[in-house]
Amino acid sequence: MKPVQLKSVSTGTMDIALQDASQDIWDKKYRLKRKDGTPVDGNIDATYQRVARALAEVEETEEKRTHWYERFLWALRHGAIPAGRITSNAGAQEHKPATSTINCTVSGIIRDSMDNILERVHEAGLTLKAGCGIGYEFSTLRPKGAYVSGAGAYTSGPLSFMDIYDKMCFTVSSAGGRRGAQMATFDVGHPDVMDFIRAKREDGRLRQFNLSLLISQEFMDAVNRDGDWMLAFPVKEEEAEDEALDLYDASQVVWREWPYTDGYLKNDTGLVACKVYKTIRARHLWDMIMSSTYDFAEPGFILIDKVNEMNNNWFVENIRATNPCGEQPLPAYGSCLLGSVNLTRFVRNAFTDEAYFDWDEYRRVVAVFTRMLDNVVEINGLPLEQQRLEITGKRRHGMGFLGLGSTMTMLRMKYGSSNSVEFTEKVSRELALTGWREALDLAKEKGPAPILEQDFEVTAAMLRKRPEMKRDGYKVGDLIKGKVLHARYSRYMQQVAGIEPDLVDQLAETGARFTHHSSIAPTGTISLSLANNASNGIEPSFAHHYFRNVIREGRKTKEKVSVFSCELLAYRSLVNPDAMPQAEEEGQRLPDYFISADDITPKEHVDIQAAAQKWIDSSISKTANVPTDYPFEDFKDIYLYAYQQGLKGCTTFRFNPEAFQGVLVKEKDLENTVYQFTLEDGSLMQLKGNEEIEYDGEIHTAANLYDALKEGYYGKF
């Protein structure tokens, strides 16, 4: 067999035709259509034109609108991909007037009262109806069995109210036929935390939620020293008196940060008195968390103290929740304005010795894209006044990138290697520095985010969190501009100042156009469609040939769709049209740098995330994939390593056929999994997951049918 000759090419993936699955997803989710289903967008470039025009219309003059339409369209054609709600809804007011360009939000604080709980359900319903996902914290609700004096009864606890939100979400259709997405966060110190961890072991329960634990530094310290951990909840003054609690007895009361202090006992530094309900070993709880994550891929892991420490708006926000995928920790009514740069578009001479990344064009796209996303604020379409005030006051957005794993492969770099870690940090750093330069220029042209022009009173809590303010002469009661607190005392901006001190000095003087610039989203359907299945977000490719379970309106179960990775399509187009994963014949084999998620150790996953997180001012949605047979003993320290590396959060995924089907599946997993069905006569039928079965007038894979029946969503799409 002759050796394969490599072709030298000048571009990365620009000239490779979209695969059928990619074209199909664009048509179903992002293509604008009339009420009768006829297309408004003739092709994908027409979608780009619609979005560019809608965002350019925000500009003040006709001259600017014409100029920026051309620049925005150029950026879209060269790798800038706004998030799904922008792509679907920008410029679509004539056809979809009640939809938003914002992907996700966070609920207002759910206070511990029936009125407030139900008010938030109503707000969440309106938010989901507008096409936005939503996140909530539920550990603000008192634990199961606690006495409610107003009702003269004992509460059923937070999880019973989560069931209400779950059913509401399932009922409300999001824009474009998209089902609503929700994130529930829960404090690791809440008395009902073990119920929260175990919740998804019940078939069909809380399936409209992603679940994540808020992990504190205090808890991690207890885990590391193998100490006790107090499960506690805030007390009011009258409750403390009725129960004769000794506020200075650590076995009865612990003092902790809390989302709100109204009505609760608090000290001079703002910490709240929490009644201890139960004391357990921290390691016991840790093992329970990891066991659930191993079996059910949840709960996720949010290091909430790290989130708040590194938050650019540290002086005015106490973050306790995230958007449904976790890449945007947000305050009450905060919104998730996202976009991703397709890194594969900047690879030149792919798969050759001369392969390189075009940094200059990357920076140009990031600069234009920054203005695009800032303009989205003006056409946000959010349904609640509190949401609109929040986004216009801070103008935060989250630009990230997708296709990192695919790009590494095209550059002949192995994901997780030392050079890939260096590359990841540079990609993240250049995105950040370019973005903050644009933040300054835009502030000079259009004005800074309003919150940065506000005066803030220095508090004891501020000085506790930022002792350097004392050294700079600030004391309690002083007034200080938001732009100074943002640029000089944000831990993240202090890091930027280490590279570009003059830039940060100017931001402190002028203010930035937005308070946050960067975030890395999971980009699942965006990557599959508009990026021709480039790897999701910061991930490696799940596999180079696999199946995606897709919701189709009118079908009773999910549909299995075959897809190829972007890098495999590129390799087959540019190098060897016969190449396939796991090929045995020499002429069909892929090079060893073609690796996928299962080939990468959890440590390597975390190392890549840590390299990116250093320069991402919000957070990152990242999943460490492990094979089904990955040993639990090796798995259980993944989160601990993530904590040690300074991450803000982490999630894992292990295919477990006993628990759920998942979105992405490999043929070998389906073939190796046997599903058992009980027939009407009581007999049993056993089928492999990849076998097809006719049921109720449709053809289903055994795996998808089993999952739909088990989880209760059969026939509800």
What would your notes on this structure say?
Helix content is 38%, strand content 17%. The chain has 717 residues and is α+β, with helices and mostly antiparallel strands. The protein has 4 domains: 1-33 and 78-103 and 337-446 and 512-664, Anaerobic Ribonucleotide-triphosphate Reductase Large Chain; 109-322, Anaerobic Ribonucleotide-triphosphate Reductase Large Chain; 451-510, no CATH class; 673-717, no CATH class. It has an 8-stranded mixed beta sheet with strand order 14-2-3-6-7-11-24-23. A 3-stranded mixed beta sheet has the order 1-15-18. Strands 8-10-9 form a 3-stranded antiparallel beta sheet. A hairpin with an 8-residue loop joins strand 21 and strand 22. Helix 2 (44-56) runs antiparallel to helix 3, helix 3 (62-77) packs across helix 12 and helix 12 (359-376) crosses helix 15.
